[in-house]
Amino acid sequence: MNSAQVASRPPTDWASPKMRTRIARRYRSESIFRNLGLFALVLAASFLAFLLFTVVRDGWQGFLSTDVKISITYDPAVLGIDPAATKGPNAQAALQAGDFQAVMAAGVAKLGDEADTVSEGAWLVLRKQLMEDPALLGKTVSVWVPAKSTIDLLAKGKFDLSKPELERGVSDADVAHFNDLKKAGLLRTGFSRIFITGADSTSPELAGIWGATVGSLLTLFVTLSLAFPVGVLSAIYLEEFAKRNRWTDLIEVSINNLAAVPSIIYGLLGLAVFLNFLDMPRSAPVVGGLTLALMTFPVIVIAGRVAIKSVPPSIRDAALGIGASKVQVVFQHVLPLALPGILTGTIIGMARALGETAPLLMIGMRAFVSDTPVGLTSPATALPVQVFLWSDDVARGFVEKTSAAIMVLLVFLLLMNSLAIYLRNKYERRW
Amino acid sequence: MSLTFISLLLIGLALVGYFIARAKGRALTALPGGTARTGTAAVHSRPAYHGAFVALWVALPALALLAGWAVVSEGVIASRVLSTVPAATRPATQLDRDAFMSEVRGVVNGEIEEAFNPDANPAAKVYVATKTNYNLLAGAAAAALAALGGLWGYSRLRPDFRARTAVEKVVMWTLILASLVAILTTFGIVLSLLFESIRFFQKVSIVEFLTGTTWSPQTAIRADQVGSSGSFGAVPLFWGTIFIGAIIAMIVAIPLGLMAAIYLTQYAHARARRILKPLLEILAGVPTVVYGFFAALVVAPAVRDFAVSLGMTNASSESALAAGLVMGIMIIPFVSSMADDAITAVPQAMRDGSLAMGATTSETIRKVLVPAALPGIVGGVLLAVSRAIGETMIVVMAAGLAANLTANPFQSVTTVTAQIVQLLTGDQEFDSAKTLSAFALGLVLFVITLLLNIYALAVVKRYREAYE
């Protein structure tokens, strides 16, 4: 009866106007849907582009600094350095102890009205110069010293000078000084050595990124040397040796959940266990590294298991067949074949650790550290924490320094991720 | 002589032991009848295993001794140092003793020029002397143990000695220990959070914490201080967390992430996919502090200006909307990759069947693929929510610290994570309710994300198995 009904129905008239509009509507909704998908992707991509554009626009000038030319007399009497002492074995120490602030004050005073344009920390540059070239002692030389932040920002055109004085954030006096100096040819804006080689400072013109970079490297060193062996060994155990029982299930559940625990919880763990219970030093890269290692090793375990699983069983069977023990099979055959995959996962985990901020804040790595750290226990900060600290700073000059620090951080991340992609493409085998 | 140096020395000794024993192992194979797998003197293990066996015997017992010493040494040295302090001025309570010892250590490390406590300066000299003596003693004991272990291990090397089995047993134990780190970490997290939270709940009732609607953690330092009674009602924080992480961020991330995944899996050419997918991965790789900076510097002022243009007079420069929007964008790649997995797991036959019936691609996606993949997508979204509520830097930098209970996205709200950072980065003694409340907040965060993760992972797993 059913088939009779179907048969009795006239065939669909696809050319009828009703059918045509219906099909047109369906095609229209098809193309709208498709374009919505494209729109979502383009939106995400343009956000990324906008973010990078903003960072680079604000940040590239952070690598530049403005210097003022002043004439400095390295007078031993003012410095309080005995010229004879600079010949002896303790020459560097003697030079280091000199009163460079007085020398700078004398040199800056020669600028007259424009004396207020030089950074307060400029004497550090003088000390460095004299320590590198002790022969300058007693001589008068002209030196480029960093200008104070307002002058630096004026030189970079960061102020809208058409606004009234109170709204633009820079005083008329500073603008006048800046114009005078510029006219006299005493200003230059160039690549900032201080930013690349210095550590944190309270004045933007003296702040550098090197201290935080070293802090990050030391932290990552600790993280890598703990998380990689532990991660690889547990991956091997879980994938190759563990029997399926309740104990192994507990380990598996732990690892899967640890990989998804919010990073700040690891910070709380580090604070409670490493700092308060084990009494380890605050702000130290070793504690930061330990905390990040706990966070990174589940990632390495998961990547390691996938890599080990992808090694075909025939490799194991062949090695077992010629008399290798199970441990020999794993360490001499399976592990080398799985290593590229494990390394890729490790690098991605390390890149995540490099960008991590919250746990480091918890264990005190947000302290103001004006020296480049020298060891695993000396106070240090890390690149992302430095970004956070500078972004919090009210001084206007730190806006471009923050963006510049972000650029440095992103370059490191890009390098690590490119390495991971390169390794994956070059060594990964499809069985 | 520091413990690190002694440990390095021991590792050097172990290497020496390794080479000597390996040479012995080689000599064994050279014995008459020992070269091949024939004869009575066939050697069981390869020379390297003999070497490793002795090296382990040199290093492990001695290192274990050193590790034990490192744990107890501070206590032993402290009691020695304290016994030299004149009895009349000797610190009496445990707390005083700890303070005294940390002062002494400060003098020794050069962190403190001149100790506040007059006894600490001579004690510092005693400390250095005792520590040097004891470390030398420990070093000597470790060396003796290493020599003994090495000799004993060496004496066991024979052609029929199963060195490989012994070494592999150690390797197996190392593997088991490494995999236990995961359990230890989980327990460490649970115990440390629980322990501090219990101390917090002794000061503040758990009911007030979970149901109170005023959050002002400023406890009075002086008794007569005004306006800092300290009330710990965390509901505004929970609301702020849900508002930013689970509502605003998801309104951004779910449609965009889902549509991106649909386009990538169903429409994009293989070549376009090769370019677009890494793009999303870059978005996922940008550190959260960068998003936070961007939210605070660019998005928040724009949102405020927009609010002002809508006629709002009290628009704050820190708003829930700014933080939520940026967080949503941060989550897009995550949602998209989860949805991608879920959609590609739907069997090709279902898609082909729908297309064969004359449905357009978009009809197939909307009526067949997405409904079939829904459990997987929901699981992915739950994971994304768990990630968003645990996210810290964006809210610290863009959402503000005012604990408002408001549904107005242009107002400032605060979240659990932002408060944890705020509470623990000030200068506060460790026992105050203010500091401890951060751990209670951490515990709530941990429990909620854990439940979300377990549930979501179970959903995703069951879904995947359904189509396998």
TrEMBL record, chain A:
Record-stated family: Belongs to the binding-protein-dependent transport system permease family. CysTW subfamily.
One Gene Ontology term from the biological process aspect of the record: phosphate ion transmembrane transport
Lineage: superkingdom: Bacteria
A Pfam family that the UniProt record links to this protein: BPD_transp_1
This protein's name: Phosphate transport system permease protein PstA
Swiss-Prot/TrEMBL keywords: Cell membrane, Membrane, Transmembrane, Transmembrane helix, Transport
GO cellular component: plasma membrane
Protein topology in the membrane: Multi-pass membrane protein
Location of this chain's protein in the cell: Cell inner membrane; Cell membrane
Primary subcellular site in the record, as a coarse category: membrane
GO molecular function: phosphate transmembrane transporter activity
TM segment ranges: 32-56, 209-238, 258-278, 284-308, 329-351, 404-423
Residue stretches making up the ABC transmembrane type-1 domain: 213-420
UniProt-listed InterPro entries: DUF3333 (IPR024573), MetI-like (IPR000515), MetI-like_sf (IPR035906), Phosphate_PstA (IPR005672)
NCBIfam families: 3a0107s02c
Gene: pstA
UniProtKB/TrEMBL annotation, chain B:
Main location group: membrane
Compartment(s): Cell inner membrane; Cell membrane
Keywords, comma-separated and alphabetical: Cell inner membrane, Cell membrane, Membrane, Phosphate transport, Transmembrane, Transmembrane helix, Transport
PROSITE patterns: ABC_TM1 (PS50928)
Membrane topology according to the record: Multi-pass membrane protein
This protein's GO CC annotations: plasma membrane
Gene3D superfamilies linked: MetI-like
Transmembrane segments: 49-72, 170-195, 237-264, 276-300, 320-347, 368-389, 438-460
Example of a GO MF term: phosphate transmembrane transporter activity
An example Gene Ontology biological process: phosphate ion transport
Domain spans labelled ABC transmembrane type-1: 239-456
Role description: Part of the binding-protein-dependent transport system for phosphate; probably responsible for the translocation of the substrate across the membrane.
NCBIfam families, per database record: phosphate_pstC
Similarity section: Belongs to the binding-protein-dependent transport system permease family. CysTW subfamily.
The protein's name: Phosphate transport system permease protein
Organism: Glacieibacterium arshaanense
